[in-house]
Predict the 3D structure of the following.
Amino acid sequence: MTNLTQYGWNDHWDKEWSKEDRGLHRPGRITADFGQKFKVCTEEGEAWGEMSGKMKHGLQSGAPYPAVGDWVEFQMLEGEDRGVIHGILDRKTNISRQKAGAKSAQEQLIAANVDVLFLVTSLNDDYNPRRMERYLIMAWNSGVNPVILLSKADLCDDADIKAAEMELIAPGVPVHVVSALEDRGKEAVTGYLREGVTVALTGSSGCGKSTIVNWLAETSAQRTQGIREDDSRGRHTTTHRQLFLLPQGGLMVDTPGMRELQLYDDDGGGWEQAFADIEAIGRSCRFADCRHEREAGCAVRAAVESGELDAKRLQNYRKTQRELEFQMKKEARGQRKMNRTDRSGKDPVRRKSSYWNQRLHDE
C-alpha cells in the first residue's frame, strides 16, 4: 500500500474529491508522462494509465491534457496492472511556456500542482542573468514560489559575486550556490523538501538538473551527460517529465532542458513581479503611461544614466514586454479566426485545448 500523503494528498484534495460522486474511481497522481501513456501512483501502488475515450473526446472542446503532478480519477482494470484515467482534479498551480514553433499562441504545460520551482542555471559559460529574468516571469505567472539554484559552483571562482548579481535581479527570491561534486549547499536545498511538498526543476539543457535530482535522492535516478566544451551547452538528458519521491521527504519533478524559453502569457502578473524594481522607479516618471523609451521626464532612463539600474535589465524589460504583447495579439487573432470559421458553417473548427499539442519535445 502507498501512503498518498507522501505524494501530496491533503485536506485540499479531500475536499476536491468529495465535490462529486466518483463511484469506483480512486485518486491517483501522475508521476511520469510518456505521451499517450502515464505512470499513475494510487494507494495500491504505481500503474500504467491511459485516458478514457470520453476524456480524449473532451480535449477537442478545451478540456486539459494530463500532466505530471496532476491528481486524477483512476480506475484499475480488473486482473491487470494498468488502468484508465477518467478526469483531472482542478489544478492549484501550473507551470507553462509558449509552445516552441507554434504560429499561434499555444500553451505548453510543464508540470501541475507544484509548490516550489527551482530555477537552475550553471556557473559556467552558460550563466545568463537575462535568461533568469525570463524564468522568473514564468515562475510568478505559475503561482509557485521560485528559488534560484546556481549549480556547478566547483567550476566557478566568483560564485558569491554571481549570487549577489542574481539577488539584485530577483529581490526577495532565495538564491543558493550549489555543487553536487563538492556537496555544497545541500542543507539549504533540502530545507525546502518535506512530506507532501512538490518541487520542480527547470533550466536550460546541461545546467545540472538531473545531477541535482540524483544528488538529493542519493541514487542514480536520472541519467546524466556531459556538456559541450565550446559553449558550455548541454545535450538533452531528461527526455520526459517525471516525479520522484525523495528519501528526506517531498517530491521532485525533473523536466527536459529548454534551449529557449518562450513566454506564454502574463495572467499572473509575472512580468511586473519579475521587474518590480523598474515598475517602482517608473511611478516617478512624468507621464503615467511612460514606456521608458524617449519620453521626457522618464525616471527609469534617468536611473540607467546614474548607474542605479543596469541598462541590459531595462533592455530585457522592454523585450519581454513586447514579446508578451505579441503573444496576446496572436491569441486574439487566432480566436477571431476561429469565431469567423464557426459562423461560416463550412469548416467546423475543433476547439483544441492549449494542452492538446503539448507533446512536442522541449527544445
